[in-house]
Write a structure and sequence with these properties.
four-stranded antiparallel sheet; 307 residues; Methylamine Dehydrogenase, Chain H; mainly beta; 48% strand
């Protein structure tokens, strides 16, 4: 975890959360920055006290690796997407599963709540993105058009648009409030692995080609192409202000970019292995990253099958 109270990127402090038994694929903060949620190839999700590092709960139920996780805006709920083709909605306070969403026919790679927590967007290897009603668990809309797996998704902060990134090298921006045809953003030369909207409406996308593209999605225009990562980009995340972007890449450091210039202002090296995920806390003062290093080995009595 990286602390940056003044967003000056000069002081680095690291705290490790190392209890998973597989690669950590995603990590997110609750809205009050008190809880850190992580998910892993070990089929589990963990809830942590973000300040003390205490493990609050081990959450199980998926039958395969958990690829993505996300809190609702008020953090009352969290959702998870898994290789087992399902999406689960959980109650944060009790860590109990409230609903299992079945609609994808192959591994689900991404899940995101809308800012008002009414909808979920999911995507996966079946090439579709699905819009769900959180309260009922019903499918609202199937977004079809990608030619390969959907690996990433994100709502705009006004809930009017959804962005999806695909292995077909494109990003699509879908309107949820009109019949306007989706915009297809082209420029990457590899699978699009992550997307993220800023508060100002910019859209960032990271790719297996090692680049990050920053778009003005309503115009379909590219603002910056950020180069410098040595491996494929796993995660992109805007700070609360939208003035800073973080990106994490395979076999590389976490990089911090100035969105006024498109320049890299800091490289963070804290993991022994690849940084697989990164996210800013809602306060803007913390950045957390997940990796495959420092995996805890199971004790003899813990070698149970994934539940």
């Amino acid at each position: 975890m990286w602390r940056n109270p003044a967003e000056d990127f000069t002081k680095v402090g690291v705290k490790y959360f190392s209890r998973h038994k597989g690669e950590v694929n995603c990590c997110v903060f609750s809205h009050d920055c008190q809880i850190l949620l992580t998910c892993s190839d070990d089929g589990r999700l963990h809830l942590w006290n973000a300040r003390s590092g205490q493990l609050l709960a081990k959450v199980s139920g998926h039958k395969g690796p958990v690829k993505s996780c996300v809190f609702s805006a008020d953090s009352v709920l969290f959702a998870s997407a898994s290789h087992d083709c399902s999406v689960r909605i959980w109650h944060t306070a009790t860590a109990k599963c409230l609903r299992v969403l079945a609609g994808h026919t192959r591994s689900v790679e991404t899940v995101s709540f809308s800012p008002d927590s009414k909808w979920l967007i999911t995507g996966g290897w079946d090439k579709d993105a699905i819009l769900w009603d959180v309260q009922s668990g019903d499918v609202v809309r199937v977004l079809s058009g990608h030619k390969d797996a959907v690996q990433s998704s994100m709502f705009s902060l006004d809930s009017q648009f959804v962005a999806t990134g695909s292995w077909d090298y494109t990003v699509k921006v879908w309107s949820l409030t009109s019949e306007e045809r989706e915009k297809t953003l082209e420029g990457h030369r590899g699978n699009v692995s992550c997307v993220c909207f800023s508060i100002s409406g910019m859209l960032a996308s990271g790719s297996w080609d090692g680049t990050v593209h920053v778009w003005v999605p309503k115009q379909g225009a590219s603002l910056f192409v950020l180069r410098g990562h040595r491996g494929w980009v796993r995660t992109v995340a805007f700070s609360r202000s939208g003035l800073v972007l973080a990106s994490a890449a395979e076999n590389d450091t976490v990089r911090i970019w100035d969105m006024s210039t498109g320049k890299c202002v800091k490289s963070l090296q804290a993991h022994e292995d690849s940084a697989l995920g990164c996210t800013f806390a809602p306060s803007g003062a913390l950045l957390t990253t997940g990796s495959a290093d420092l995996l805890e080995q199971p004790e003899p009595w813990e070698k149970d099958p994934i539940q």
